[in-house]
Amino acid sequence: MLSRSLIAFLLGLPAAMAVIGLYLIATPALPELRLPALLMIFPLWIGIAGASYMLPTRKAAAVLIAISLGGFGLIQVLKNMGGVSL
Amino acid sequence: MKASTVAIFTRIHTWTGLAAGMALFIAFYAGAMTVFFHELEVWDEYSAVAPLEQDYVQAQELVDQVLEVDPAAAETFRLYPSSPDHPGNVVRWFERGEDGTFDTHEYRMAPNGTLNAEADNAHLASFIYVLHYSAGLPARLGLYALGIVCMIYGLALLSGIIVFLPNFLKDLFVIRDGERNKKRFWLDTHNVVGVISLPWHFMFAWSSVILAIGIFFLAPFQYLVFDDDLIEMFGAELGVVEAAEPSGERAPMIDVAEIMHIAQREIPGFEASQLRYSHAGDSNGQIRVFGKVEDGSLSSNANITMATLDGRVINVSTPQSASLATTFYNGLIALHFVTFGGYTAKWVYFFLGLAGAFLFYSGNLLWVEARRKRRSPEQPKTGRFLARLNSGVCIGCMAGISAAFLMSRGMSEHANRADLTELAYYAVFFAAIAWSYLRSVADGARDLLYLCAALTAAIPVFDAVIIDMPVWRSIPAGEWAIFTVDCLAIFGAVAFWMMGRAVAVRARTGAPNSVWSNPKPDPAVGLDVGIGSTTR
User: Fold this and answer.
1) Nearest CA to B276 among B287, B266, B292, B267?
2) For labelling, which of A11, B352, B361, B508 has a CA lying 20 to 30 Å from the CA of B189?
């Protein structure tokens, strides 16, 4: 339970950040929604952390790492290639 | 829902509850009182000789005198204008020390027009407020610790609702008396309180995390997503506005009365509570007036920024003019601090706060009950340990707060009143924890609840004896803060006494195989002596 909780707690956060980051990058024309989107990180983290318990420990870790790396990687690609600037 | 899923979330709920429960108990019990922060200040600052109200002309005289005798204040200081509940203008500024701590400088104007630099020694309300967000740990560490606790609290809420879902309709608002099974009673009450206040608890977990450790959540976005400075992007929406750089040129300032006039002109119905000066006396000086405007919206916060040189308005922020982002953020903060809905909302928050404290206390009791060995007088050490810790921390916190009330009232003329108020809390709190480990579980809890009752009952007695304001005289005198505190103290004392009595009765007559059992040794049998004190 400790390892699963650490995964949910520690890996869930960057995953939630990556998802919100992707949303922000995808909607540059909606600046008024940026702050609410940032504030939504806590509910989103709760959802992601809770959902991670439904998976086996290793699979949960792999999925969360994949979301984080994939999300932040995509953000950098979009910023560098797509010219998106926030 | 699969049984295995429920089992997983039951374990999550158990461990998150245990990890966060006691800190949250302190946060909620102290928080319930902090709902009436302003009224607590009024209770604490009561003086038989009421200070006189002061006007804006006197406020300006105070500002001028402070800048003359303490020029370092000019960089940034705050003026709190006189109000009926807080008569007398106050100027306050904070000097940052080399170690990062702040020294508070406080000034008032005495009735004879001289400057009084003695700080107000009333500290109870602010102490309970700090306790609310630090759980008694050193303030900054406590704030971050409580932020993490609130993240765990969020998981506890999610897991709790998932565990409850399969029996939602069957168990909704049902409380079985638990005559045979105390665990059933505690589970039902825990569920009822949790379900009734679930949205409110979720709001608290969310807003508390944002307030306590939000900066750590936002910082990564600065480096990974945004190109511009986050504070520049969201500063205005979060209420953080950088003052203009000083020019170095001396310049006259508009006076307080004119500032208030401009504020009223720009925001009709505005009630100013604080004037924050930056670089006073400089040609680039600014003043930001904070207050509220009652327009029936959730967030009533408003502020206006103007130049101190000529009153030129730089920025106006009202609930109507606020952006979507500001409304969202201020709304969340307003929900946390209950700055809406008047006294009706405050009382609802007060009772929900107490119910929240009960939720965490009962959660720990459930853990103890769940590990109870019904067929053996020997109970698990973990159960005894947690039962003692739960009693010591939770009841000790309540007793400590009552002791802080008494100390603050008893030492109202003492210069070290603030320190003594804190000392009273911590002394009682730690003594309570020690006591709960020195006694059997049942005896310890009973003693601490009776101590709570005695300390709480003494609050109206102190008011009657020390400030000559018994509860029956507080109504004709119009001292509503004292009346309310005294009445709540009387109700609280009775409730504590009844709880102590219930613990004592259960110890004598309840099921014997429990940490809460403490049967009298049977002299006829001549054995079992010490079971109450050594194994339970």
Assistant:
1) B287
2) B508
Residues making up chain A, counted from first to last:
86
Which residues fall within 8 angstroms of residue B194, CB to CB, at 6 or more apart? B160, B164, B201, B359
3-state secondary structure of B360: helix
- Using CA coordinates, name the residue in chain B closest to A8: B155
- From the list A1, A39, A54, the residue facing B11 with the nearest CB is A1
Q: Do A38 and B323 touch (CB under 8 A)?
A: no
Decide if B198 touches A, using CB distance below 8 A: no
For B411, the token pair is: 């030492």
Tell whether the model's pLDDT for residue B359 goes beyond 80. Answer: yes
Backbone angles phi, psi at B252, to 5 degrees: -70, 160
B194-246 confidence digits (pLDDT tens): 888 899 999 999 999 999 998 888 888 888 888 777 777 777 777 666 777 88
Q: What are phi and psi of B94, to 5 degrees?
A: -120, 120
DSSP 3-state of B102:
strand
Q: What is the pLDDT of residues B131-171, one digit of tens each?
A: 999 999 987 899 999 999 999 999 999 999 998 888 777 77
Starting at the edge strand that comes first in sequence, how are the strands of the sheet with B301-307 ordered? B115-116, B102-109, B90-96, B76-80, B271-278, B286-292, B301-307, B313-317
Specify the pLDDT at position B146: 95
Q: Which of A14, A41, A53 shows the shortest C-beta gap to B12?
A: A53
Helix (H, G, I), strand (E, B) or coil at B520: coil
Write down the pTM of the prediction: 0.89
DSSP B428-458: HHHHHHHHHHHS-HHHHHHHHHHHHHHHHHH
Q: Do B220 and A32 touch (CB under 8 A)?
A: no
Strand partners, B112: none
| Radius of gyration (C-alpha) of chain B in whole angstroms | 27
pLDDT digits (tens, 9 = 90+) for A33-82: 888 999 999 999 999 999 999 899 999 999 999 999 999 999 988 888 87
